[in-house]
Structures are given as structure tokens and as C-alpha cells.
Amino acid sequence: MADSDTSLYIGESSISVAKAKNIGGRLEILALAQENDSPMFYQFDTEKIIADTSNVIKKLFELYKIPKKTVNVVIPDSMTYSQIISMPRLKEKELLSAIKYQADQFIPMPIDETSLDLEILNENTNENNLLVLIVASAQKLVSKVQKLVEASGLETESVENELSASGRFLSKFYIPVTKVGGSIFVNIGYTTTSLYYFDNKHSLLTDTHTFEAGYSLLLKESQADINIDKVKAVDLLKQVGFSQNSSLDLKHILKPTLDVFIAEIQKFILSVKTKFRSASTSNLYLYNYANSILHLDSEIQEAISIPTSLYDFTTILKRTPVVEPFINNLSSFVNPIGGAL
């Protein structure tokens, strides 16, 4: 990864900043900041949205006294196209040509208008192949992000997506309960959700799937059915969610979206089992917006019969005054912290 230890996460409806280091296998967080009601940066292509978003970023750096410097930028999976593929070990020129051909098969835009990022996740000398992460995004989007960073008084070190940042975090800090099979990490975003399969034995992500359902869909269902505003819907999901003992049957209202989550997870489990020849799934871990939906983990566990919980990494964390204000919400910072490592 790049030299900078500071990341700027530009979410679809939130902005986060993290400054972190890996100190001998323990995570030391030097700075954390978050604004959950930021301008919808990706929805509009205007100078005003860049100015409004840069003002939010500047205030976060000033409020939390984070030195302005070069940052690693993390953008949502929903703004990119990703694949993890196995390829034969080739000479550099042949490898790039093969990857461009592969990318052209899954990217719904002209390749000459695309920014491609490649990361070799694993090199298997015994089988003479490589595991490669391909991340593609529109060049116009990357330019817009870089313009925003510059307007915020910062410099761009790199731009990556959540998959790349999360993969780095997990490969460094996640300790599976068993070395058999794998674990699935459920990154619940604002408009989409990404599923990552983590190979427990080799400590790396080997498969991914993103689908069109996220936190915003649960918000819309709550607002429409109960006729409440967004602020009240956010509070209801956080305080009531899928609770059994509540005067409000929010669980019934949210069931259509829950069914989508469960169906997509079940399809992904079957897919990795087929792809990796009977690979089992030991655990599911939820993060990002999952922290804002009470008892979502228990609902998924009941449906798929696999141990499911919010991803808790406090055991590898150095507890400091910087961390304490966010201690109950740390699972929402996996992407920005991963970007800082």
C-alpha cells in the first residue's frame, strides 16, 4: 500500500477519516472522524457539490485536529466494478494484456474510459498461477474525486474501493475461529451490499459479489410505511430494527429487503461452495451500516443457520482516548481504517 497512513472515505452519504497503523499485529488508531449526513457527492456532477463536500471534509480535519496531508481515498464498491480471478503466471506484458481482456468482459463501459487498478493477492508457485483483484472505475469519477481532494486542501496518494481496503484490513487483523473453509464478510453499504469470501487458511479474500440493496432501501421502507421523515427512520432502525418485543412491528415492514439480503447471501454461499469445491462457511460478519440496524445479524443467522454477528475487532485494538467515542460503532470504520493501512 502507499506510504500515507491517513485515509479519506467518501461514502454515498457519509464522509470518514482514519489515521491508523499496524504495530506488531495490533491496530493503533491515531485519528477517527465521521460525518453521517454529508452531501450526495456521487449523485450530482456540479461545482457546488464539490464545494459543499470539501467543506465537510475541511471541518472534519479541523474539528478532530487531523494534520492535512496526502490521503489514500476509499470509494464505495457501488461506484466500481470488481473481480477476483485466478490467472496463469505470465510475463508482465502478457499479464496486462490478459487482464485487460478479462476486464473488458465485465465492465459496462469502454475500456479507454476506464481506470484499472490491479492487485496481486496471492502467488501460487506450486500451481504456477496468480490470484488477481481487478478494480475498474470511470476515469471521469476518479478525476472528480481527485478534484474534491484538492479542493479540500489535501493530496491524493491513491484511490481504491471498499473491497480493496477491507481485504487489506482483514488479511492483517482477522483471526478466523477455524482454519477450515472460509468466512463471509457482509459490507452493507448505502445503496448496495458487498459479500466477501475470506479463505481462512490463506488469510485473504478470494471471491466477491455486490448486489443492489442496502441501508437506504430499509430507510425508504420505514419512511413510506410509517409516514415518518428520514431522521426518525434512522433512529427507528437503530433503536428498534428487527426487535421482537416492540409495539411497532418494524420487522414486518422490513421483511422484503431482509428477504433480498438472505437470498443473495444463500446464493453466494452456494456459489463459493461450487467454485472452491465444497468450501464451507464457518461464520458471517456484518459491518459498515449493519451497526445501524438493530438485530439484523440475528435475523440472518436464524435464516441461514450459520453463526452471524457484527464484526468486532476490539481484541486487536489498542484502546486510546481517540477510539473511545467510537467504540460502539467501530464496525462502521472497517473501510476507512483499511484504507489507512
Any chance you could write out the topology, listing elements then pairs?
Elements: E1 6-10, E2 15-23, E3 26-35, H1 47-63, E4 70-75, E5 81-88, H2 92-106, E6 114-124, E7 129-138, H3 139-151, E8 155-161, H4 162-173, E9 182-188, E10 193-199, E11 204-211, H5 215-226, H6 230-239, H7 250-275, E12 281-288, H8 296-304, E13 308-310, H9 334-340
Parallel strand pairs: 1-4, 4-8, 9-12, 12-13
Antiparallel strand pairs: 1-2, 2-3, 5-7, 6-7, 9-10, 10-11
Helix pairs in contact: 1-3, 4-9, 5-6, 5-7, 7-8
How would you portray this structure in words?
With 341 residues, this protein is of the alpha/beta class. The longest helix is centred in the C-terminal third of the chain and has 26 residues, at 250-275. The chain has two domains: 1-79 and 137-174 and 314-341, Nucleotidyltransferase, domain 5, CATH 3.30.420; 177-312, ATPase, nucleotide binding domain (Nucleotidyltransferase, domain 5, 2-Layer Sandwich), CATH 3.30.420.40. A hairpin with a 4-residue loop joins strand 1 and strand 2. It is globular. Helix content is 35%, strand content 29%. It is built from nine helices and 13 strands. It has a five-stranded mixed sheet, sandwiched between helices. It has a five-stranded mixed sheet with strand order 11-10-9-12-13, sandwiched between helices.
